[in-house]
Write a structure and sequence with these properties.
Mannitol_DH, alpha/beta, 45% helix, NAD, Rossmann fold, five-stranded parallel beta sheet, 2 domains, binds D-mannonic acid, 498 residues, 6PGD_dom2, EC 1.1.1.-, three-stranded mixed beta sheet, Mannitol_DH/Oxidoreductase
Length: 498
């Protein structure tokens, strides 16, 4: 089979090999600007939108992908060379691969190269929605104060140099200011990140910034911009070199950066789009009045489950999530965590079936074909724990205080942050707070509570005697006996064996 480079010109050559866009991409206008064109966006929103564009009457909802950060050069160059095209490879439960070329990203911009162009794009009249995948840490929220972090030097820089911003807040503010000055309509700003109340968070953080940077704009934003909350879901591991070469060998597609993902996908959105929206419900998204139950279920079970498996798995020397999820002792531990600690907290949620959700999660985690990297899951844990794990703990501490499994995982994270697994292999910690994590992890060897003193992550958790006791006991146990032996003990209900 001849191999061709993936681009517009060669698109026809692939149509008998994999699914390809059947719509005329030249007719598609940009209605959405998306900031953060990583794997998740391309497996999720861009996929849904591609499906929608197959309906001939939909021509207004093409995506302009914006690469915001300096290190996004590679994805920007790749998409530019490939005319925005890429292959989405769905790894089915039986191991077969379903491949389709996605065409919904019709434009790409690289913000560091031309910031004004990005600002103008967001301010252009045809754009109705700005979507974001800027990661949990990207919202610039300080867990200790509950407020926007003005100490971030990039934020200070954006205030001083408004037309050459570095952060999403700087870009959005200047673009909205132009819309206001030009008498244009407002837009919807839609977060697609894993944050409880992600729309509320986006609104709160943006307005905090605006009130300092461009105070006169705040009222206009209040009246002209909407911020729907949404739950997003699709496990999307980092693309490996093997994924790239497989695609070349099996389908003759020379794609520098395909995306691989699981078959499952979910998108539950609050219907609050001030300037109109695509009919994403026609391609499987759900529009609901209140997304909170769905968000809580997903963050506190799926994302938290990931962090549990990630941190324990990393210490045990595993490399992928399926390996650790299929370890029977860890699997039992995770199920106990979900049943005893998370489910009671989520019990009152309306409209969600927790039992079947938990069962489907265990199957998804255990999927041996996905090979989701533990490294990916453990990265930026300092932004993830406060959103995924700690809300359950806080609620538990107000009631029956079943926090043993969560305390165990936090203790494992403290030990993980020393930088070695249980066999002494160096761990690749990727975290904006790495220096602090490592410092406190080392201090914890003498006084385990030192790790809990990182206030921007743990708030006042160190003041909870119940938590500190369970955490300290777990810390000593893991150090003395290793994760697996402790887990085995906990699974058989005899945890306290320091
Ligand atoms: C993961 C998520 O980053 C993480 O820790 O839990 O990326 C997860 O895979 C997605 O939210 C799945 O929808």
């Amino acid at each position: 089979m001849t191999t061709y480079k993936l681009n517009n010109q060669n698109l026809d050559k692939f149509k008998d090999r994999v699914a390809t866009p059947k719509y005329n991409r030249d007719n598609i206008k940009t209605g959405i600007v998306h900031i953060g064109i990583g794997g998740f966006h391309r497996a999720h929103e861009a996929f849904y939108t591609d499906q929608l564009l197959h309906n001939e009457s939909v021509t207004d909802w093409g995506i302009c992908g914006v690469a915001l950060l300096d290190f996004d050069t590679k994805i920007y160059n790749t998409l530019k060379e490939q005319d925005g095209l890429y292959t989405l490879v769905v790894k089915e439960l039986d191991g077969t691969l379903s491949k389709r070329i996605i065409g919904s990203i019709v434009e790409c911009l690289y913000a560091p190269e031309n910031p004004v162009k990005v600002i103008e794009k967001i301010a252009s009249p045809e754009v109705k929605i700005v979507t974001l995948t800027i990661t949990e840490g990207g919202y610039n929220y300080n867990e200790a104060t509950g407020e926007f972090n003005f100490e971030n030097p990039l934020i200070q820089q954006d205030i001083k140099h408004p037309m050459a911003p570095k952060t999403v807040f700087g870009y959005l503010t200047q673009a909205l200011k132009l819309r206001k000055e030009r008498g244009l309509k407002g837009v919807t700003i839609q977060s697609c990140d894993n944050i409880q109340g992600n729309g509320h968070m986006t609104e709160k953080m943006l307005l905090s910034y605006v009130k300092v940077a461009e105070p006169e704009l705040a009222v206009w934003i209040d009246e002209n911009v909407s911020f729907p909350n949404a739950m997003v879901d699709r496990i999307t591991p980092a693309t490996s070199p093997v994924d790239i070469s497989n695609l070349k060998e099996t389908s003759g597609i020379d794609d520098a950066w395909p995306v691989v993902c699981e078959p499952f996908k979910q998108w539950v959105i609050e219907d609050d789009f001030i300037a109109g929206r695509p009919v994403w419900e026609n391609v499987g998204a759900q529009f609901v009045e209140n997304v909170e139950p769905f968000e809580k279920m997903k963050l506190q079970l799926l994302n938290a489950g990931h962090s549990v498996l990630g941190v324990l798995g990393a210490l045990m020397g595993y490399e992928t999530i399926d390996e650790v999820a299929n370890n029977p002792n860890i699997n039992t531990f995770l199920r106990a965590y979900m049943k005893q600690e998370v489910a009671p907290v989520l019990k009152a949620l309306e409209g969600v079936d927790l039992e079947s959700y938990e069962a489907s999660l265990l199957q998804r985690f255990g999927n041996i074909y996905i090979k989701d990297q533990i490294d990916r899951i453990c990265s930026e844990s300092s932004a993830k724990f406060p959103i995924f794990i700690l809300p359950t703990v806080y609620t538990q501490l107000k009631g029956k205080a079943h926090i043993e499994h969560a305390a165990f995982v936090v203790a494992a994270w403290a030990i993980y942050s020393r930088g070695f697994d249980e066999k002494g292999k160096v761990l690749n910690i990727k975290d904006a707070l790495k220096p602090t994590l490592v410092k406190e992890a080392i201090a914890s060897e003498v006084n385990p509570v030192a790790f809990l003193e990182i206030e921007s992550v743990f708030g006042k958790l160190k003041d909870s005697e119940v938590f500190v006791e369970a955490y300290t006991k777990s810390y000593e146990n893991i150090k003395n006996h290793g994760v697996e032996r402790c887990v085995l003990e906990m699974n058989t209900n005899s945890i306290s064996f320091i």
